[in-house]
Amino acid sequence: MLAAMQVMAQSIPATVSQGGLVIAKVTPGSKVTVDGKPVRVGEDGTVVFGAGRDEKGPLTVSINGRSSQAIRVLPRDWPIERVNGVPPKTVNPPPDIAERIKREQAEVTVARDRDDDREDFTHGFIWPVQGRISGRFGNQRIYNGDPKAPHSGMDIAVPQGTPVKAPASGIVTFAKPDLYLTGGTILIDHGFGLSSNFLHLSRLDVRVGERVAQGQVIGAAGMTGRATGPHVHWGFNWFGVRLDPLLLPGIERAAP
Asked: I need a surface site. Which of 52, 72, 173, 206 has the fewest CB within 10 A?
């Protein structure tokens, strides 16, 4: 897996799909920007960035302020998913609950801002659980007939209590059992602004600040928060940009 990833990452690609992650190499010591935003360059020249669900592109990558490359963003179709039977208060919460949700999401946002020089992501990713994909990244969600934001991750249907494994090594930056919308929630930082989040967990086995290894059990699947059945929601971010876990190195080449 690592060898395949290294081949993929020798240069900046000409295209990237909406929701896709780019892992590339530049000359060590270079200064790189993506659409004018500076990005971290590893000691070995590794750079990462992503194209969000609604990114139209092109993404302009500049190196040392002299050479630049325009990456074409490939559009995707986003089907509509209808989810019925959701508790009404989680779809259109009253003001006090809405304020709680805002506070909780602000905490999660802070955890995603971490920018470590660790390259845990370079070893590729594994599935956190084995099961049927019951919800895909980016699809428009309609809860109880009410249109809401697009789905921010990938849902994998598994029985209650199924062990959930870390898809890559990293540091736990957030771990709380009772967020209103997402229930048991864990964030793992993989370095360079890349992070995984796991929602609706019935059990949390790790704490903030703990280092976890790829494949380590971090908790158990559940249906806490806004959920109609037991599953694992796996979200993936480059800072505030939501990306598709199904497009990660190692994942797109192996069905669950």
From this structure: 72
